[in-house]
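Suppose a colleague, Dr. K., hands you the sequence of a protein chain of 473 amino acids and asks what its three-dimensional shape might be. Before reaching for any lab equipment, you can write down a predicted structure in token form. Begin with the sequence itself:
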Amino acid sequence: MSDLLKYSIELVAVLLLALGIKGLSKVRSARGANQVAAIAMALAVLGLLISYAGEPSFNAQAWTWIIGGTAVGGVLGAVMAQRVPMTSMPETVALFNGCGGMSSLLVALAAALYPAALDATGPVALVSIVVSVFVGSITFTGSIVAMAKLQGWLSTPPWMQSKLRHVFNIALAVAALVGAVEMIRNADSGTGLWLLIVSSSLLGIGVTLPIGGADMPVVISLLNSYSGVAAAAAGFVVGSQLLIVAGAMVGAAGLILTQVMCNGMNRSLVSVLFGGALGAGSVAGGGGGEYTNITSCSVEECALTLEAAERVVIVPGYGLAVAQAQHTLREVTRVLESAGIDVAYAIHPVAGRMPGHMNVLLAEADVPYEQLKEMDQINPEFPAADVVLVLGANDVVNPQAKSDPDSPLYGMPVLDVQEARTVFVVKRGMSAGYSGIKNDLFELVNTSMLFGDAKKVLGDLLVELKDLGLGKK
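The predicted structure, expressed as tokens, is then:
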């Protein structure tokens, strides 16, 4: 009876999870879909507890650990959800990926040490344990390193930027393979298990540590895929259909998103993982030099131009997130819309520091989902735009990607903002993007620079627009 109840609960959980993942495809339904997925996972845990409730090992001490762990994890999750700012979301996602990897690792470790208690015997269970340990270890340590690098707590040591790191990582991969073979050959020996854990954990550090912050969107997507693979393997270990389905979905979605991010950055996954960061020190070829023809303007001039516009396109970037200016931006666009001006947002696939960063940032400020337009959709519309307002974006609007074959950005899909009648770029200074090269957009005759913090500039712009009479209708 308990098995029937368990499978019924897990079937409902799988259906709810599928609905939740489908709902995440749209900003408008994402919050509710996330809650549905959370309910699905809670049901999955309930089904697993029901199946093990009658086991002799499931005593009061076991329930104490389960209830205590649930309470601690729930409190930490609630606190983080309330306090983590949007600019720290990439680090938070990396941490969550690491937690998923660690969970799968712990499940596999328990199954390896106590196979009879978890009924984790047989070749399928043994292979699943090996996969879960290997991928879970890499996911955990790699995600922690990614989080630390994004947070600025950790930098790449010089020797990890040399070819010596490849020798180090290959040696660790061989050691992990030896540990995996030893585990399969002799399941009762702990030598293979601990060799696999240690070498895989160090391999996660060795692969992630050399990667620069600019490539972190790709790394986070890939680690997210790893966490799904580890969860699916753990599902085979404990016999949870939901973990298998959810892990497979996350793994596949993560791989697809990783490929999308690589295409958006004109980078191959191999170059990201084994070639180090694309940065100023690695740039060779065209695209360098100093700016010689920069035009700056005042907030008042920008406001006058916006007042006369019929169509305005906003290009959000990481600078907008750093300044936490999304709510001020929304107030500005509300004023423009009240004056009958058409407003749209151009979203580049790698804008920000993680996939979907700008979508989430703007959704937090109640920007209508219909106004968010992906690159392929918005690029043909730039020639018809009167004004483009670029907020903290750099390489994703650099015309060199299409005009200069010697540029390291050449071939990277970018937003064609230079096709608009007037372009205003809000930046703190003239610092380069992750490519380390100058942006030709800044020197075009139809581009004007607005220097300053995005939140302050937008706040001043809002005052000027209201002084001009916009927003009073």
